[in-house]
Amino acid sequence: MKIALCSSFVPFLNSGARxxxxxxxxxxxKEGHQVERVYLPEVDAPHLLFQQMTAFRxxxxxxxxxxxxxxxQAHLISHPHxxxxxxxxxxxxxxxxxxxxxxxxxxDAKHRGLRDALHAADTSxxxxxxxxxxxxRVVSERLRQFNGVESEVLYPPVLDPQRFYCREYxxxxxxxxRLEHHKRQHLLIEALQYTNTPVRLRxxxxxxxxxxxxxxxxxxxxxxxxxxxxxxxxWISEQEKADYLADCLAAAYLPKDEDSYGYPSIEAxxxxxxxxxxxxxxxxxxxxxxGVNGFVTETTPQGLAKAMDQLYVDKNMAKxxxxxxxxxxxxxxxxxxxxxxxxxx
Amino acid sequence: MAPFVWGGAEELAVNLQKNLIxxxxxxxxxxxxxxxxxxxxxxxxxxxxxxxxLWNVDHVIALKFPAFYIRHPNKTLxxxxxxxxxxxxxxxxxxxxxxxxxxxxxxxxIRNADNETFAESxxxxxxxxxxxxxxxxxxxxxxTVLLPPINDAELFVGKSTGNYIFAGGRINGMKRQKMxxxxxxxxxxxxxLVIAGPPDSAAxxxxxxATVARLGLEDRxxxxxxxxxxxAYADYLTNAAAVAYLPFDEDSLGYVxxxxxxxxxxxxxxxxxxxxxxLVRHRETGWVAEPTPGGLAExxxxxYADVAVTRAYGSSARALWHSFNIDWSNTVxxxxx
Amino acid sequence: MKLILVTxxxxxSAIGRMACLVTKSLVAIGHTVVVVRAEIKxxxxxxxxxxxxxxxxxxxxxxVLDAAADxxxxxxxxxxxxxxxxxxxEWIERLPGLVCLHDFFLGHLFFSWAERxxxxxxxxxxxxxxxxxxxxxxxxxxxPDFIARTCNVAPMTEWICSQAIGVITHSRWGTPRxxxxxxxxxxxxxxxxxxxxxxxxxxxxxxxxxxxxFRLLTIGHxxxxxxxxxxxxxxxxxxxxxxxxxxxLVGHIQPAAIIxxxxxxxSLRVNLVVTGEADDATLARAVAEADIVSCLxxxxxxxxxxxxxxxxxxxxxxxxxxTGFYHELPEGCVEKISHDDEIANVRRALERLFTDSTAxxxxxxxxxxWASTTYVxxxxxxxxxxxxxxxxxxxxxxxxxxxxNGVMRNWGASSELLRASELMMSPFRAxxxxxx
Lengths: 345, 337, 436
Fold this sequence. Notes:
The complex is a heterotrimer of chains A (about 350), B (about 325) and C (about 425). By secondary structure, chain A is α/β, with parallel strands linked by helices. In chain A, about 40% of the residues lie in helices and about 15% in strands. Chain A has twelve helices and twelve strands. In chain A, α6 runs parallel beside α7, α6 (about 185-190) packs across α10 (about 300-315) and α9 (about 265-270) crosses α11. The radius of gyration of chain A is 21 Å and the shape is globular. Chain B has two domains: about 10-145, no CATH class; about 155-325, 3-Layer(aba) Sandwich (Rossmann fold), CATH 3.40.50.2000. Chain B has helices at about 10-20, 40-50, 90, 100-120, 130-140, 175-185, 200-215, 230-240, 255-260, 295-305, 305-325, 330-335; strands spanning about 60-65, 75-80, 125, 145, 165, 190-195, 220-225, 240-245, 265-270, 285-290. In chain B, α6 (about 175-185) packs across α10 (about 295-305) and α9 (about 255-260) crosses α11 (about 305-325).
């Protein structure tokens, strides 16, 4: 089949949204399909929104048998066989409208009008799809609440999961993801001061700016934890990531209110490692079940510390939970074969 | 870009990106789908590009219509294609623009929009002399010719001088592989031909096969009709006696010709082939034949007349190509000084 | 909400009167209103209606911009009269807003505007009406009657409505052109109006009142559209009417028309009383004493007739031409007269209504009942407020269309191409549903 994968993008910003498209491309080509990846630029400025959306409406992919749309506002593209793998809305106009800080523009009549127009246009475009998939129950719920659309959850797998492996269970909890305030690595550092065991922490990844990593460093110093925390502010290669996960005691991933479970948690699962997360981590809780394949703690340093200690003290539990984590992926049918079956149905 | 079609322009973009990164930049390719049928659709396709917003980008290099309409303060054009059906092909009566007022209006629209983009671009390069002339003639803008380098030059080191003439590249009516076959039946009995490349349509491939059968050339022609992996293609080329490339009135030098010259192979082309004539000097770097089976047959036979001469032509072709100084490092330097 | 109302304000303007009523209702509901006076500068000295809110002159550039800076919406009252609406034209492009469209035909407004904007005017004509429309509009050779030659080919409705972010108009018959050209919502709302004449001052019938006199009245600016000559002929064609009917004209009338109509009446022995412009007391008496009011109109190009509404509010038996706005009035509230065979139809209607006082009273009663619950300023005010909110939702789409129109203009797109691309350029336009 000729399949066009359509997504909006911001040049030079690599995010999970790119993985879901590019990995799917690899898998589809493996299956023998012809794939055209269509990335179109988009900027969320309110006064520019509708002219960009009009442009998206004019994108003509009739040469494709099927079109799969991902990041907003790609779902506006029109095609007789349009499939959505919906990963998030323009959240400042949807579930984060009430958040004054996040929204970035005033809650006045003019912007409310824009918001309502956007909802109507989105709903109409989403309804054109032959099938709507989402990447999590969180996103499905938002599609239902705001657009009145039912969607099927299709969890995004990781590419070549066999590169993740399990070697041993050492003494460090690993968190490999972008160092950002909403990813809350600082909570993990704060948690260490409440631990009773010598459990260690490894935090690695890039950051969008110098402020947050500096803050983390400062925190480590202040709490005299330099000997227990390894902070690597750099791009981590896939091989390094696989090796860290292979050896770690467990993984931690506790973003604030995330849309979906996030690649770090599924990567850890493939490496047979338990995942520590918190009650308000959003989509991560669709993967992590407290006491089964990890811990879902209170969003406090103390709560996190307790989980970290438990894993350190009971390595067998850590192993057991780690294996459960791997099995969970099968139970939840998180696999490329399932994805391809559903998308190409 | 036309979705699912991968051609020279797409290869160029990928290699430009690769070499920009080698030079230390971050680079992404923005491929914008473009549908030109029916022609009434073209205005909205143009407006579509004009509405895109680029953020987080320092520099834009635009290659084709209508992608070059994108707005950015730092835009450089490396013009590979205008919408020829509004320009020279329109004059030649080969256009999809309807022969009525709307067609005229669309043509005017394209010209005005093109001129706006040319005026707002920092610098304009074209990929061939032909493209440069067209731009000057139809839009009145000056440009510098920047010939695109070949990709993966390291693959094209001449190996042996084999017993066959190699005709590579896409197979379709404009590339005229069929004329080579017709010429072969008039040529010296020593002449052997290898035609290898992807057909634009199944019919294009079938036609060549049928021609071979009709002319009874099975023992002198090898047809390898498919998309060739790069090393297979390089293998054919670097072991050939000479390379034939005779498209009808093509804009640019042609990758096949440049790759052949890189590998030091003598070139065969025809007088109406267009851009390639920049590389083929008759009886210096190869042969420029009349665009007839008879004329081509003469050139093909000549390849076998004196191997030393043929090899010398090949070396001259390489020297001429090198004298153009067309490599990726220079190209990147020129585009982003 | 804070609203800017750009409108004629002078007493002579019926639209000004309507805008005044609406302004008071908007304020009563709780909105803030600032009025921008739209009449031509020489008329700024004329007495105005009492709006009760701040008024700014349209040529007070800074004043208008300051007021608009924190306004939620701008509302333009537009009618086919340049001297009353120049200010609207000056601001509508810079401050996009809602248009209350009082006339579907805007040829006179456009013509006057074109005098100082000929090049732009030609472009507008070509854009909406092609070469044909552009040619015919200014060229009297095809038909010296301006309205006759332009009202079907180039009524100029689109010229204004394409600049509006939403349109409120007052009847349905002219809306197709509005819907086609306006990127925002279109609604039909009954015109806000009132019946200000106080009958309590009229105590006893005047001495000249005879029991068997039929009093027919026409109010307002007396021009040929009001069919006065044919009403005179209709009266003349009926012995009954000729004997007993007195036809009174109250309102501004040109001296030439006075002579023409008086001569016609006397030659036909019809009792015509030309009162001309009158003070309130005279007008009140005329209305109180009238048995029937004639609101005939041909051609009828307005979205609603203030005078017909007024007559209905007074509970008068009213005769109207069966066209346009009048055609949409409910049966049994007014007497609709077909324009074909006008004189005979008018004669029959007058004979019937003058002789059957029960029917006449009933007609007037139903008219008042209908009018008093329909043409309510408070309803109009609510609809403006609601429409402004709806426009906030359609505005982003309109702005996007505006962006692309600008791009096409920069590229020198011909009007043919713009028209051909119209549909494609509006992928988000919802089906405008008229409030039926």
